[in-house]
Amino acid sequence: MESGDIINLGGSAIWTAVLVASPILLTALAVGLIVGILQAATSIQEMTLSFIPKLIALAVALAIFGEWQLATMVEFYQSIFERVQYMFLS
User: Fold this and answer.
1) How far apart are CA 20 and CA 67, in angstroms?
2) Is residue 90 helix, strand or coil?
3) pLDDT for position 82
4) In angstroms, rounded to a whole number, what is the distance separating the alpha carbons of residues 50 and 37?
5) CB 57 within 8 Å of CB 29
6) With the CA atoms of 69, 74, 77 and 78 taken in that order, what torsion angle do they form, in degrees rounded to the nearest 10?
7) Tens of pLDDT along 36-79?
8) Are 54 and 35 in contact (CB under 8 A)?
9) Cβ atoms < 10 Å from Cβ of 59
10) 46 — phi, psi (to 5°)?
């Protein structure tokens, strides 16, 4: 395996990680921002008030995007195994 192949594999691994993590992270960011604005507007500074909505939103986001995330990861792993098989055959 050449260094270019390793760099290409590393780049695709990072890109896959970003794709898989982004729906969950963006959901947590959006809910945290909304709850933070509401807390600042109402002067309520309760820590559990920000935790529970984030937890619920993350569970909903995982239910919505979970199948796509799993399919993306499976596709990435299959491409890795195909590369390994090609590497040993040539």
Assistant:
1) 11
2) coil
3) 87
4) 11
5) no
6) -140
7) 999 889 888 887 888 899 999 999 999 999 999 999 999 999 99
8) yes
9) 11
10) -95, 125
Is the separation of the CB atoms in 74 and 52 below 8 Å?
A: no
**Does 88 or 51 have the greater pLDDT score?**
51
Type of residue found at 85? Q
Distance CA 30, CA 75 (A): 28
What is the 8-class DSSP label of residue 2?
Answer: -
Rounded to two decimals, the pTM is 0.79
Contacts of 12 by beta carbon, 8 Å cutoff, 6+ apart: 76, 79
pLDDT score of 43: 86
Q: Please name the residues in contact with 4: beta carbons below 8 A apart, sequence gap of 6 or more.
A: none
* Other residues' Cβ atoms within 10 Å of the Cβ of residue 27: 19
